[in-house]
Amino acid sequence: MLQFLINLLTPIFEGMGVSPTDVATYVNNLSGYIYAIWCAGARGWPGCSLSPSWPT
Would you say residue 16 lies in a domain? Predict the structure, then answer.
């Protein structure tokens, strides 16, 4: 998932003068926040410990 974000964001930030290595570093440094946001939005997806348990 992180590599997908890096591939998505690199062309955008390269146009602003940021190197691909810097984009990869920033995304990797923010990975904890990225996964937390993803899990918070996943609601009930298996493997996401932050998602609430919905009664069946």
Answer: yes
